[in-house]
């Protein structure tokens, strides 16, 4: 599950492109299937979105929630790929992107009527 926050005037026009860039990085680095996309966009009013000085109104926060199990190097590669591809394809400077990876144990996930640790039919590998 990916949650993307930004100022609505900047985020709304690029939602589809941002989703495509993020998903492409997840497929490339984590090996997620093409049809495994769960993105939630939270466009915010500027007065409700405080961010650090030195950033522009393009400042965007990307929270990546996933089951734990990926190697530290894999997560770092994902973060670097996201910075690179977002700058290249959406022209948003890395200083305006914040990425947070949140890993939770599989038993903390619930989908399709079971917990993540009970799922035996995932079409991708967690341990990459």
From TrEMBL:
Give the superkingdom in one word: Bacteria
| InterPro entries linked to this entry | Tauto_MSAD, Tautomerase/MIF_sf
- This chain's protein is named Tautomerase family protein
